[in-house]
Amino acid sequence: MPSSPSSSRALTGLAARLRAVREQAGLSGTELAEALGIGWLQPKVSKIETGRQLPTAEDIMAWARATGVDAEPLLTLRAKAAAEYVTYKDRIADAGGAVPRQHELAALAGSCTFLSEYQPALIPGRLQTPAYMRGMAEGVEFLAADGIPTDQIGHLIAARLRRQAIMYEPGREIVHVVGEAALRTRIGGMSVATLRAQLTYLAEMSELPGHTFGVVPFSVVTPFTPLSGWSMYDRDLVVIETRDGTIQLTEPAVLARYARWLDQLLAVALTGSDAAEFCHAVSASLTDD
């Protein structure tokens, strides 16, 4: 795991918290290892508690069960302690599978009061319909190649849909901005009908209280060229997903730049009813298969 000052602090904090919950449960390291069962030995417990090993999401959930505590806060700490850069395949394997990875992301988002995401050519996950998700999954060849077996697709979609519940929770500001290409691009095996239904859903979600949805049309001149999409968590973490890996950014100057870019995109984007009307117009312009 590549180290950085921020990830090292987060890993140290996670290690200390795991040690504390073990001690609160009245268990020694050896007793906890025995309670955790196959694959666990006292040295592994020691490595995790001293910050020398990043536990997987599955490890965290097992630790929580053995000590009788809620796993969600621990999963949030674990997410913040994750590597700055790991390959997509390693990230899925490290999380114990595609579904536990979704639980980890949900825990991270749930700990925040501000969430934002920009995607130039893809509908953000929190706004995807089930059919859009399935169309992507069934047509994207790297799912199996990167360690997600096809029999996990249904479970993965269900987990992703559960993550969308955060859209309806009060006390949180959520911002999504997409490029027009995101409204027109069919990915994998999705049909035109699937994309049209997705656009209708986006129009509905543009009116959701506490949620700002923006579309940057092709005709708009943007003040900069976004080279990739990104997600921001509470303005203190930016995550950039790529085909081959994930980059996590925590430096204040870098975070300020992404916050400024988001404001600049919102300044030229269509929002509210204008965004909804634009989604309907794009839907009407799509050519049937």
Termini Cα gap: 46 Å
Helix content estimate: 40-55%
* Name of the CATH class of the largest domain: Alpha Beta
Instruction: Give the rounded overall mean pLDDT.
Output: 84
Helix-strand topology string: HHHHHEHHEHHHEHHEEEEHEH
Total strands = 8
What order do the strands of the largest sheet run in, or round the barrel if closed?
1-7-6-5-2-3-4-8
CATH topology of the largest domain: Endonuclease, Chain A
Give the class from helix and strand content and strand pairing. alpha+beta
Which segments are poorly predicted (pLDDT under 50) over 5 or more consecutive residues? 1-7, 83-96
What's the shape?
elongated
Please give the largest β-sheet: 8 strands, mixed
Radius of gyration: 20 Å
Q: Per CATH, which architecture of the largest domain? A: 2-Layer Sandwich
Q: How many helical stretches?
A: 14
Strand content: 5-15%
**What number of structural domains do the residues give?**
2
